[in-house]
Design a protein that fits this description.
Three copies of one chain form a homotrimer. Chain A has about 240 residues and is of the alpha/beta class. Chain A is built from nine helices and eight strands. At the A-B interface, helix 5 of A face strand 8 of B. Chains A, B, C: Keywords: Hydrolase.
Amino acid sequence: MATYVLVHGAWHTGELMEDVARPIRDHGHDVHTPTIAGNRPGDDRRTGLEAAIGSIVAFIEERELTDVILVGHSYGGMIITGTADRLPGRIRRLVYWNAFVPNDGECLNDMVPPHYVALFDAVSAASPDNAVMLPPPIWREAFMNDADGAAAQATYEKLNPHPYATFTDAIRLSANPAEMEVAKSYINFTEDTALPQSLGWHPRLSEKLGLFRLVQASGGHEVCFTNPTLLAEKIIEAGRD
Amino acid sequence: MATYVLVHGAWHTGELMEDVARPIRDHGHDVHTPTIAGNRPGDDRRTGLEAAIGSIVAFIEERELTDVILVGHSYGGMIITGTADRLPGRIRRLVYWNAFVPNDGECLNDMVPPHYVALFDAVSAASPDNAVMLPPPIWREAFMNDADGAAAQATYEKLNPHPYATFTDAIRLSANPAEMEVAKSYINFTEDTALPQSLGWHPRLSEKLGLFRLVQASGGHEVCFTNPTLLAEKIIEAGRD
Amino acid sequence: MATYVLVHGAWHTGELMEDVARPIRDHGHDVHTPTIAGNRPGDDRRTGLEAAIGSIVAFIEERELTDVILVGHSYGGMIITGTADRLPGRIRRLVYWNAFVPNDGECLNDMVPPHYVALFDAVSAASPDNAVMLPPPIWREAFMNDADGAAAQATYEKLNPHPYATFTDAIRLSANPAEMEVAKSYINFTEDTALPQSLGWHPRLSEKLGLFRLVQASGGHEVCFTNPTLLAEKIIEAGRD
């Protein structure tokens, strides 16, 4: 039995990872799905990256979890990298699933094409609390490309405004991911166009990990919604010894 | 029920799309498979790009088709782009299937590697009517790589000499595809080597669409022959809301 | 019935290709699995590239094999290229399976990222007979990424120290692969990270073949261990007319 902590992406909550957690639990594993500070119902959307990372550090420490397989989706890659840096002794393996891989001093926006940064800047500036939402057509076409229109609409309604400071705050790390001693995996879904594939997840970001285990499968950015059972299998392949 | 118009590639005819049309019709849709001017049995092979586009514009207007999902294969990407520019009110979505995506002023040959342009120049110069055919070894290895030799031979015999001016004429567009208001999808078959994959269809040409929906599957350039049922499924995924 | 000669990669032997040979034989084909000089139990690990190539040339000549489909894995790409150059009349088709494709004057290390060359230099320098082994974590994560830990360990124990001169000797060819008259195929397994995918097998090395047939499937570098039946199917697709 292994211990998994699944860290969701921007606009999501831990609850939205439950359909992924269930089939992993069915294999006998212990699976946690915390919600990052800033994405919880009452949270201040002015939450920054350090507080977001701190909330997952605290989650693991409070439960005294050890030998953790720490999985991060998209923005969650920022969080698991920071968490492993703060809690090296408790993490067995980092699993990035179409996730950002920051070096020390980088922010998420440094890894995103300029037209997305410009869009997020404009949306957050118009928000009362520095929050960003994704325009529905981008969600439908670039994130939920492997779903029908009804599923794209239904899942959009479950998203929450995301604290934009977590995209613009630089991460502080004592070592870059390639130098971290923890084992690392990268799960890449081959139809993921949340980043344009010319400036994509793998190998552009995955290779910042140094030696890592690649796991790939067919699907878009939101396989937690479109194919949670396949995602669970891939998480197990990425996390196993 | 949706209305699909399937626009074939170079050397093909609409008739060769029938095995793709049938399973789409089995889902209750209305599917048309016109042959582009220049590829019909008696057509002058000196037909240029404007006349080729005009023939599909006329096909749609004469039948008063509206809310069309307009699918183009390979060279057909030139045709559907021009058609959407001429008939914006009638097209619901453009679906490029391993297809060329031209900006205003570009010709097909601008998107093809120099060794293919040199080959086509030589073949057309030796032709009495500026037509090009594909040498059988290229068809067999680079286009029909996912078939056996007998299927490669049988399909080669169904091809027709292609009007070369449609590769060298620049397209005239009032807006580039990225700026067109119509929805767009790109279907990429991952073993398609009709273009060398270092200078390939996706993401090099697909990203000229701006926001688009990516659909991918396994197969070569001629899945209309090697796997028409899978292609039909992918066209439906690309065309649905 | 066709004649296949399967040429293994570095650290392997012909015996380790038997699970691949068997399903090809079940289709009625004649399949040979020689071990390259330098990798046989008693061989001097100071064996160089010319002697390694010569051993496969001799294997084919002694058995008077003709119309051979010559398959090479990884380092085996060096060997089959040299063999086709020495024995043009006996080879029907070259099949590279995630294999190196050398031009005249290149050595294997010329196609490998600098950090691997540095690693191999250090390991071979510490060896009494200029042999190299792969560190277990690289084998487990980058070569056997599609396996569990037990399979990674069990297969590692079957490997043999590899003669490093075969990586550093330049190959002598009378023509580069793109100019060779023999037919060519490239099999690419899409999760193969033995080379980093930013500097990978396909299309970087495959396109050195000129016109070639691409066959792809899901798997890592060692599908001879992780999925020999699928590999056998892909070899048949790559080798058929």
